[in-house]
Amino acid sequence: MAQKTVREAVLNILVRVGQSGGYSHLLIQREIRKDNLNQKDVALLTELVYGTLQRRDTLAYFLKPFVRKRVKPWVKWLLYLAIYQMQYLERVPDHAIIYEAVELAKKKGGKGLSSFVNGVLRNVQRKGVPSIDSIENPVKRLAVETSHPEWLVERFVRWYGFDIARSMCFRNLHEKEVSVRVQSMKTSREEMIKKLEEDGFEVERSPLSAQGIIIKNGNIFRHPLFKEYLTVQDESSMLVGEMMDVEPGMFVLDACSAPGGKTTHIAEKMNDEGCIHAYDLHEKKTKLVEEKAKDLGLTIVEAKQADSRKLHEIYDNGTFDRILLDAPCSGLGVLRGKPDIKYQKSVDDIQNLAKVQGDLLAAVAPLLKPDGKLIYSTCTVDKEENELLIQAFLENHKDFVIDPHFKASLPEVCKELEGLTEWGLQLFPQDLDTDGFFLTRLIKKV
Ligand SMILES: C[S@@+](CC[C@H](N)C(=O)[O-])C[C@H]1O[C@@H](n2cnc3c(N)ncnc32)[C@H](O)[C@@H]1O
């Protein structure tokens, strides 16, 4: 695919995400499959979509003085795309960026629009974009500089103070390395590392899981051992499997399991002996859990559909040795991979999710055996979905406490983190370069 067409595909994705709320990662995958793009084009497409989306509000601030009238959404996104490249990418000269944007405008909107786009971009090039430093209010400045909605930055600052909020917002702009989990029953991490290095990959050992490998360089998705030996998983998610403290033969409930990353990790940890009942609200998604277990050669996973708020209709109290509640959440910890989330979520969404999370926790907790362990986790950094929710649960469930061994069982690198409190561990993306993630472990008193 010629570069010009890649940019056209980028523009189509941006307009769909920006105007109709499509998910960028799904649209990118569809585009890659549809046009059978080569590796270079995939890299360019991904960089331009994520880069422009990540910086949307900053780009709007940069563009504002140059466009006084309302423009069509696709023209606005075309201008954002061009200014993104002019401001943040060094390898393409401005004149080439402007030329391509003008050609695209001509193709999509005719001559009138192409001269408009040309005029705006030439002006931006000549006059330069407005300074962000002139914004006096520090929260507003951080919001514009890092392209997060102001309400969200305010919330981060309220929860964690300005410095942590600032580091998090900046880190959210940068891509994360891919990490994979080795199927430990098939091979060891060391053997896998040897194999990957022989095949030209640059890798590192994860400090958060003995099964985790960070891919520093190389396309792991195309490796022949990928499907049967490896699972792409953020290191913070691997920490859940590590902290479940399972043993072979246990009876485990995974209440929100799809697509099955953590379920399969737990099964590996149990040496595929025992039983895991893995639920998800959506029938279609339970198939993903089944497929993942099958790919990895795991047999103890039974994937089923249910609303886990109603599992008391199926199970008696005190049934499970271990429970995982990896709850549906706002996803504010994964903005690096899914920038659309920061523009789409609202305070109402967070509060509605917190209600569902609280209901799920209250519903599954009684199913735990006395002395059993329950992990609650989310990929968000919002206190209402994490720490405050756990506090409220413990107020109302005096038969549960935070596991007194939780802190001591964490990997060493977690023990000094600012997000480690008496309620659990809040990992920030800037801490260990993982997703923003929360986890805690409760035990049921005997
Ligand atoms: C954070 S994801 C789980 C990710 C999964 N644990 C993994 O590691 O691959 C949350 C899941 O909860 C499911 N879910 C949402 N509400 C639910 C409910 N009431 N009962 C069961 N599952 C639910 C969603 O469909 C989603 O797949």
TrEMBL record:
CC annotations in GO: cytoplasm
Principal location class: cytoplasm
Coiled-coil parts of chain: none
Gene Ontology MF terms: RNA binding; rRNA methyltransferase activity
Residues noted as binding S-adenosyl-L-methionine in the record, renumbered to the chain: C256, S257, A258, P259, G260, G261, K262, D280, D307, D326
Domain of life per record: Bacteria
Active site: C379
GO BP, sorted A to Z: regulation of DNA-templated transcription
Domain SAM-dependent MTase RsmB/NOP-type: 168-445
Catalyzed reaction equations: cytidine(967) in 16S rRNA + S-adenosyl-L-methionine = 5-methylcytidine(967) in 16S rRNA + S-adenosyl-L-homocysteine + H(+)
UniProt-listed SUPFAM superfamilies: NusB-like (SSF48013), S-adenosyl-L-methionine-dependent methyltransferases (SSF53335)
EC number: 2.1.1.176
Keyword ATP-binding among record annotations: no
Entry keywords, A to Z: Cytoplasm, Methyltransferase, RNA-binding, rRNA processing, S-adenosyl-L-methionine, Transferase
Matching PANTHER family: NOP2 YEAST -RELATED NOL1/NOP2/FMU SUN DOMAIN-CONTAINING, RIBOSOMAL RNA SMALL SUBUNIT METHYLTRANSFERASE B-RELATED
Family stated for the protein in its record: Belongs to the class I-like SAM-binding methyltransferase superfamily. RsmB/NOP family.
NCBIfam families the record matches: PRK14902.1, rsmB
Protein name: 16S rRNA (cytosine(967)-C(5))-methyltransferase
Taxonomic source organism: Salinibacillus kushneri
